[in-house]
Amino acid sequence: MDKESANKFEKMDLVFVAGIVVSYSCFFISTMLKATFFIELFSPITGFAIGITILGCLKRMGRFWKPSFILALGIFSYAFADILIFISNWITGSEKLYEFAAFIFLLPNYFFGASVGFYFIQKLKGKDLYRFLINSLTFTVIGIIALRRILVHLGTYDLVDQGALIRIYLYFTVNIFILIMIVHMTLMIATDNGLKGTNTMIFGIIGYILLDFPYTYVQALGQDPENIYTNLVYMLCMILMAHGIYHQVHHHHVFQFKPYKYTQGAVRRTRIVVLAGLILSIILMVLKVIESGEFFYVAFALLAYWITTATFQNSALSEQLLKQQDILTGLYNRRYSSTVLEEAVNKAKEQSKRFVIFCVDLNCFKPINDTYGHDMGDRVLKEFGSRMLALPKSYTSFRTGGDEFMLVREEISEKEEIVQCARDLQKLFNTPLHIDTYIFSLSGSIGVSVYPDDSEQIETLVRYADAAMYAVKHSGKKDNFRLFDSSLVETVEKHRALEERLRKAEPDRDFILHYQPRIDAFTGRLTAAEVFPRLKGESNYTAADLLPITEEVGLMNRLGNWIIETAIRQLKTWRDTCGQDISISVNLSPLQLLDMDFLENLKVVVKKNDLSPSKVHLDISNDVIMGASITAKETLRNLNEYGFKLSLNDFGGDDINLNHILTCGFSAIHMSPSLIHRADSDEDANVLIETIVGLAGNMNIDAYAVGIETKEQGEKLKSMGVRALQGYYYGKPVEAEEFTRRYF
After folding, report:
1. Residue 222: pLDDT above 70?
2. Preceding amide of 67 cis, omega within 30
3. pTM greater than 0.85
4. What is the mean pLDDT of the chain?
5. Is the Cβ–Cβ distance between 530 and 670 less than 8 Å?
6. What is the DSSP letter of 258?
7. Would the pLDDT of 628 be above 70?
8. Which of 114, 382, 444, 713: CA 20 to 30 A from 149?
């Protein structure tokens, strides 16, 4: 949203809010003075002002505009009923019109319930949605039984006819169901932000419904439930609803729901709750607090809740069991490896024997995917899976990543036997694959760790085997194996220490952003700043070191949101204080592309800082997009359609798929540093660079050069038509304050 539109909405909102304040003040004064004419005049005016305020916020509610619109309809129905009352009392004197208004007054609750229900349908999916509905229905049944006992105690059955009693039950059932849903919502909100946004709206709806219980009850008794002071509170509750919507729009209050837990412990807790409920119901029936028929309904509701909840939980547990296996290869997956390794440790301790972990990374697999397609790549992985499944029973095999595997070999004793096993695995991965008419020759980089020689801790053993495998991978001979040794301890401990620190890290407390300049080759002007996260007080860890581990420890989503929010705020600061209209470039994690709320949160941050989305460049690595899911690609397309600029990193390094540039809306490519480093010395590299620049020009996208380290590289790239240049030659990443001093 541009600045002009934002200002327009801001002024419009102030007018609406002022209308509510003035009309409610008049309504309040009229009530205190008991001026009936003005009470009935200002009540609908206030109601319409509240409803119009909500309508004015709808365009900024994102995908949640529909439940807000339904909420507004409920408020409008209340205001419309007020108008009918005014016409009946002061113009026509029609009793039928008055009765019709009384009927209309029943509608807001249904609209509010529909609003909350629709919101849950949008927010929850699959099992969580069904679980929520079952929970709400179960406790609604119990609430209705409790209501019946209250009505019996009050003697209502002797005071009202059967029709009125049915209306009470129907209306109260809806209200109880809404209350149960709202209480459920409040318990599920995963936020520490207090009474903000949606929470304020929730309290408004709760207050309205609680007021409606005695109103409906008195009306059913044939008495006049009207009370001028109660009407004031009704209107105040609706103002709270509007305030909740208004607060969300202006303060960008976003929250998530806590997911339901599907564990054996959750199953046991459900069983205890149901059994306790049944026992309590039996006691109440024996004591004649409830009737046998009522006990039947309570028992039926509890048993239905138990059965359906247990079904969901058992289904989820079954899915978890299925997730132990990699569907493509038939091997176990990484998640199940901890269970197998724990059993191996217990067995090795009992028998005083060793077991060995082999971590394997395939070499030359990506070119097969790129040249022959993912279907062929899958067939290659299946073939290796079949080979590992055919190993002796002393081996347990896992697929731990795209082309990464782990094998556990039990009941092994001598070092010579370990070496022989490693050589056998080398042969397994080196033996050519014959698929259809094709012959593929691959190999494996293998790292080895031994229990208990290297460590008695499972996680440490896996890290050691990984470290040994990466040492082979980055050596001159990838087709090899290496046993873990003490020379790798420092590397592993550095990784472990970083992992431990990141597990406890908070983005705004433990991280700082560095910014690297991007220069226009022909004018020398600063055009953009790329953002790099750094740990405070640590200069040794690059973004490439940090980000993979933040994904492992579950910090990536929070860190990613913090990076974007901080970078955009800094961009606004540079614009407002330095007068520089540059762009900001932020690298995205694949986890952010799979986050359903990522795009909405990003829109909120941009609007809040009054920036154009085109000033935010989102960089996606070539490796990520090559394996991107349909959901991730859809997110990219949505980002592009909203106006954010998408850039594809590391283009020309390894795999290239031009189709992704066309289908996902990329507006720029960053040529791989491995290519740029050869620009002043390798003619073949220059031919490829010129081809990429020409191709980018024909596709109407920009080609950036990243990783420039010398003046000669920069001049050569400039001569080939590359306009945007970035690298250590033009400036290293520095903190915002230093960046401001150097470049503004």
Report:
1. no
2. no
3. no
4. 81
5. no
6. P
7. no
8. 114
Do 596 and 680 fall into the same domain? yes
pLDDT tens, residue by residue, 310-325: 666 666 655 655 567 7
Alpha-carbon gap, residue 198 to 15, rounded angstroms: 22
| Per-residue pLDDT tens digits for 323-365 | 677 888 888 888 788 888 988 998 888 888 889 999 998 887 8
Could you give the C-alpha distances from 31 to 41, 83, 233, 324, in angstroms and in order? Answer: 11, 17, 11, 67
The greatest distance separating any two alpha carbons of the chain, rounded to the nearest whole angstrom, comes to 104
- H-type helices in 504-609, by residue range? 507-510, 543-552, 556-573, 590-594, 598-608
What distance in Å separates the CA atoms of residue 487 and residue 485, rounded to the nearest whole number?
Answer: 6
The domain that holds 372 is classified in CATH as 3.30.70.270
Distance CA 738, CA 743 (A): 9
Answer yes or no: is 298 within a domain.
yes
* Structure tokens given for 639: 């980002």
* Number of Cβ within a 10 Å radius of residue 412: 18
Whether 717 and 704 have beta carbons less than 8 Å apart is answered as no
Q: What's the rounded Cα separation, in Å, for the pair 17 and 242?
A: 10
CA–CA distance from 315 to each of 304, 381, 694, 721 (Å)? 16, 29, 54, 58
Mean pLDDT for the stretch of residues 273-278? 80
Note whether 509 and 599 are same-domain residues.
yes
Angle made by CA atoms 607, 613, 618, in degrees to the nearest 5: 120
Closest among 567, 533, 537 to 547, alpha carbons compared: 533
pLDDT at 276 over 60: yes
Identify whether 85 is part of a domain.
yes
- What is the Cα–Cα distance from 28 to 42, expressed in whole angstroms? 9
Structure tokens at 548: 């993979």
Structure tokens at 241: 């609803």
Q: What is the pLDDT of residues 629-657, one digit of tens each?
A: 556 677 788 888 888 998 888 776 655 55
Structure-block tokens of residue 337: 């490896």
CA-to-CA distance for 302 and 141, rounded, in angstroms? 9
User: Strands 668-671 and 616-621, how do they pair?
Assistant: unpaired
- Half-sphere exposure in the Cβ direction for 418 (13 Å, CA): 22
Same domain, 17 and 77: yes
**Residue 114 pLDDT:** 85
DSSP string, 27-57: HHHHHHHT-HHHHHHHHHHHHHHHHHHHHHH
Residue 744 CB coordination number (10 Å): 12
The count of domains in the chain is 4
Question: Bridge-partner residues for 449, per DSSP?
Answer: 357
Q: How far is CA 78 from CA 17, 53, 106, 488, in A?
A: 19, 15, 8, 73
Domain range for 302 is 264-322
- CATH number of the domain at 636, please: 3.20.20.450
Check pLDDT > 90 for residue 733.
yes
C-alpha span between 253 and 169 (Å, rounded): 37
Type of residue found at 75:
I
Give the tens place of pLDDT for each residue, 675-710.
Answer: 888 887 888 888 888 888 888 888 888 889 998 999
Q: What CA–CA distances, in Å, run from 264 to 257, 333, 491, 631, 736?
A: 21, 21, 38, 31, 49
pLDDT of 203 over the 60 cut: yes
Which pLDDT belongs to residue 259? 59
CA atoms within 13 A on the CB side of 146: 9
CA distance 580 to 203: 45
Quickly count helices (H) and strands (E) in the chain: 29, 19
Establish if 669 belongs to a structural domain: yes
550 or 125, higher pLDDT: 550
| Dist. CA 247–CA 57, nearest whole Å | 10
Cβ 28 vs Cβ 77: under 8 Å: no
Euclidean distance between CA atoms 609 and 599, whole angstroms: 16
